[in-house]
Design goal:
By secondary structure, this protein is α/β, with parallel strands linked by helices. The protein has one domain: Rossmann fold (3-Layer(aba) Sandwich), CATH 3.40.50. The chain has a five-stranded parallel beta sheet, sandwiched between helices. Strand 4, helix 4 and strand 5 form a beta-alpha-beta unit. The longest helix is centred in the C-terminal third of the chain and has 18 residues. The relative contact order is 0.17. The model has no long low-confidence stretch (mean pLDDT 91).
Length: 138
């Protein structure tokens, strides 16, 4: 399985990677520092990721613009995208869902809650949910 993390915060990404790799050494994690990086990675990957974790507040192409562009790519039309951001602004939540994000999750402020939230995201999106990319052959 493969996850694309789109986030410019190295500390947050380190915690996300640690949580995603716990009990799962077969998970491939790709990292993009902003929306432009994410779009370039997605255009060059042979297989779509099983999940995209997308921050909103980044320099360059932000998460909203990246989400709009990703959803225009036929190969990524059904790729699960979870907005994982510090924002709790109603306008951000509404805009994310209007642009077909699958979920909007606010990053917790403390480390233990952050880890717990990541464990829930991993469990739900990578284990519970049936993903069209993982089940395309059956």
């Amino acid at each position: 399985m493969k996850v694309l993390i789109v986030d410019d915060d190295d500390g947050d990404v380190m915690v996300m990677e640690t949580c995603l790799h716990s009990n799962d050494n077969h998970l491939e994690i790709l990292r993009a520092y902003d929306g432009g990086d994410a779009i370039a990675i997605l255009k060059n990957e042979s297989e779509p990721p099983d999940l995209i974790l997308l921050d909103l507040n980044m320099p360059g192409i932000d998460g909203h613009a990246a989400l709009e562009e990703i959803r225009k790519m036929p190969r990524h039309n059904s790729t699960p995208i979870v907005i994982f951001t510090t924002s709790a602004a109603r306008r951000d939540i509404v805009r994310a869902y209007e642009n077909r994000a699958n979920a909007f999750v606010q990053k917790p402020g403390n480390l233990s809650e952050f880890r717990s939230t990541m464990d829930h995201i991993k469990s739900f999106w990578l284990k519970t949910v049936k993903n069209v990319h993982r089940h395309a052959h059956g």
